[in-house]
Amino acid sequence: MFLKHIDLIKGLYYSKTASLNDLSIYTGRSIPYVTKGIADLMKLDIVKEVGIRASSGGRKPATYSLIADTGFIISVAMNQFLTRIVIVNMNNEFVGEVQEFELKLGDNKDAIHSLIACIKAVVVNSGLAQDKFLAIGITMPGFIDAFLGNNLSFLKVPDETLVTYIAKHAGLPVFIENDSTAIALAEQKFGLPIARNNSMIINLGWGVGLGMIINKEIFKGHSGFAGEFSHLPLHKNGKLCSCGKQGCLETEASLLAIEAKAAEGLKQGQVSSLLKYDTVSADNIIDEALKGDAFAIKIIAEAAYFIGQGLAILLHLMNPESIILSGKGSVIGKLWLSPIQQAMNEHCIPHLTTYTQLAVSNLGNNAQLLGGVTTVIENLYKLNPQANISEPT
Amino acid sequence: MFLKHIDLIKGLYYSKTASLNDLSIYTGRSIPYVTKGIADLMKLDIVKEVGIRASSGGRKPATYSLIADTGFIISVAMNQFLTRIVIVNMNNEFVGEVQEFELKLGDNKDAIHSLIACIKAVVVNSGLAQDKFLAIGITMPGFIDAFLGNNLSFLKVPDETLVTYIAKHAGLPVFIENDSTAIALAEQKFGLPIARNNSMIINLGWGVGLGMIINKEIFKGHSGFAGEFSHLPLHKNGKLCSCGKQGCLETEASLLAIEAKAAEGLKQGQVSSLLKYDTVSADNIIDEALKGDAFAIKIIAEAAYFIGQGLAILLHLMNPESIILSGKGSVIGKLWLSPIQQAMNEHCIPHLTTYTQLAVSNLGNNAQLLGGVTTVIENLYKLNPQANISEPT
DNA sequence: AAAACTTTTTATTTTTTTTAAAAAGTATGA
DNA sequence: TCATACTTTTTAAAAAAAATAAAAAGTTTT
Predict the structure, then answer these.
(1) Is the CB of A392 within 7 Å of strand D?
(2) Nearest chain A residue to B198, by CA
(3) Confidence of residue A52 (pLDDT cuts 50, 70, 90)
């Protein structure tokens, strides 16, 4: 019964506050239908009226919101080295601080148990009753089968799916999604308006991920592998990539490639404030670049130029409304922006670039966490089979 | 009233013969709704019952078809040098022969009037009454604004759109579409089943066109320029392309590039049956390659390899169900197939190629003509504003 | 050859949308 | 300033479409 009229709940969640008319447009259903649905949800104390909104002429509409503490979602954003967890309420507000846990994904047999322990700790420390939590949304790198709930690259468990395993131990429903896909979802729902319809979302991180929004929907391809931007065969540098091929974009443009280039440059006697570190990490390079170190800026710009070259190809094929730079690397967005734009201009048919906007995300480092929440919201209809739902087609 | 229940007419047109159940699935509407609609159309003598179909167990369904001579569509397929026109009935059968007219598109002020004269001649020679024709579907190269009905590259007319101009002179409604997009439409509706949902349709011709089918729909991008496969910046050969950039795929892989390479090779003393021609045309090369000439086969294979390299990129990004080789060049499909497959295997992450089928179209040289018909069928709802229609969303 | 199972068609009920009307505002101008 | 014209939102009544149930017409199994 909590899950009656999922589409209305989704609409309210993403817009925070909406009128009956807004919801009718969002859901594509008639005003009377929406009116009845909201009345039901108000009786159930899931939705409340929050006041009257200004109008451009005409009767002022009543507006509605979800009641914040009806339910909570746990979002778990993992990368190769760090796992971040936060609790989010029904108004999409973080409840308490984002908790960070060092957790190595690769080559770590204990990763799955560490992860479960982290989640349990967050639940217990929150002081909230277990039945107040709706579900857990986990976002992480790797080839992910979101439908079955498995990650083909990391956190393998025997005899059952990753999702059922974690759900069993945490006592809550679990949904997983690829990190780049999750970031694209977050950008679509909470990011810039130009990211809503046809947008390419770049996840600048240890690799270069891509999430595609085509005709207002995430596009994953026929078998779920679309958006392999990182492994576009663009270079003839002979460098071996983790995928087994040579010359992938990743070998020149990822944070890993940047680390390698920095080490090489310093060995060859480059003057740089990076010399003060024993071993140079990507975070060091980012820090020093932000402080203005010329060498750090130069190698970041180089990588950005290669990303721009890849984006030129994307532009020719997809003609998107926008390209959004998001993910971990978006914090240095301004450093990437101009070399990327430069490369795009050089390698594109002129009028293509004029129709596509290149922008840095406004979600900062929270995109992946918001993507985990979005993953749960999008799967809400799976939580209660008796719910009054129209499954997505 | 002829145009009542457009969606049912479309379903019958594309499937030729269908049961009520088939149509219910095709239109996404309920059986009672479809039942009533078909009854209406039968009263109007647009649809007839054509018999009972076998069943795998259970009552045998009645099947229905459009009545072939209720209406006719004129399909006009243009390329740079040749215009082909055919009349098609409501059972998607060609009425009479395909008529060919030499008509240069580029640098020809008189092209528009020649085109209108050709269309008029076909109408008159058919002996059919003018009011039996539904519309004209014109497919041609260039940047086409199908919504406004203009071609930004060819056949410009002052003060009005191309579509209204031709419609005025021919006395029939006109719809235009880009040739590669039209071919993609034809492959989706009449081609191999694997081309229906997520497919990349390559138009091998004077350029290398691409039509994308994503989630069962033609995808044209945010401003209609998606699918610029021909101008992917993949080569560092310094060759200037018609688009103004250097190193586009087209400079190595189009029929024009093949012509140039053949001339160059012959000048350098290559032994080949091509030597018997004064000037070597693409058609000559295709002919001799089909007859087994080693040199002709070699330069075609070279171009094919470059196309395969481009397709590898497409595969990484789109992960389609299939790639279909169509258009003029598909008649030598088998010659392209293996070098293209080879290049794809070399440049793709292994498991990507295993999920995508590469195939040659089964529509031969008719794809573009069928695409013109499809363009009309898809725009049928625009013909009669009073019709009982639900416009596509 | 009857029973069990499928698939299609018809009839009935329920749901949802469409249309129309009413309510609640804003802007305008005599 | 206050009636008039115009908007937008909300409520009510009518019409359309879908979902459900039942019947009809077959096929397959035992």
Answers:
(1) no
(2) A222
(3) confident
pLDDT tens column, B77-114: 999 889 999 999 999 999 999 999 999 998 899 999 99
> Smallest Cα–Cα separation from A352: which of B233, B159, B92, B4?
B233
Query: Strand D positions with any atom < 7 Å from protein CB?
Result: 6-13, 17-20, 24-28
CB-based contact A350 B244, cutoff 8 Å: yes
Is residue A303 pLDDT above 70, yes or no? yes
Interface check for B350 against chain A (CB to CB < 8 A): the answer is yes
Identify the residues numbered 49 to 68 in chain A whose C-beta atom is closer than 7 Å to any atom of strand D.
55-62
* A315-342 exposure pattern, b = at least 16 Cβ within 10 A, e = fewer: bbbbbbbbbbbbbbbbebbebbbebbbe
Residues in A touching B219 (Cβ below 8 Å): 214-215
Across-strand partners of A325?
A: A202, A360
For the beta carbon of residue A350, count every other beta carbon within 10 angstroms. 10
Handedness of CA A68, A72, A73, A74 (dihedral sign): positive
Distance, CA of B220 to CA of B389 (rounded, Å)? 24
Whether A385 shows a pLDDT value over 50: the answer reads no
B274 and B295 Cβ atoms separated by less than 8 Å? yes
Residue A138 vs residues A173, A181, A220, A323: alpha-carbon distances, Å: 11, 12, 18, 25
> Residue with CA nearest D16 C1'?
B33
Tell me: pLDDT of B340 over 60.
yes
What is the per-residue pLDDT for A78? Answer: 96
- When computed from its CA atoms, the radius of gyration of chain A, rounded to whole angstroms, is 22
Q: Name all domains of chain A by residue range, CATH numbers in brackets.
A: 6-66 (1.10.10.10), 70-182+369-382 (3.30.420.40), 192-362 (3.30.420.40)
What does the pLDDT read at residue A105? Answer: 92
Residue among A222, A233, A321 whose CB faces B222 most closely:
A321
Strands B62-66 and B72-78 turn out to be: unpaired
Judged by CB atoms closer than 8 Å, whether chains meet at B233 and A319 is answered as no
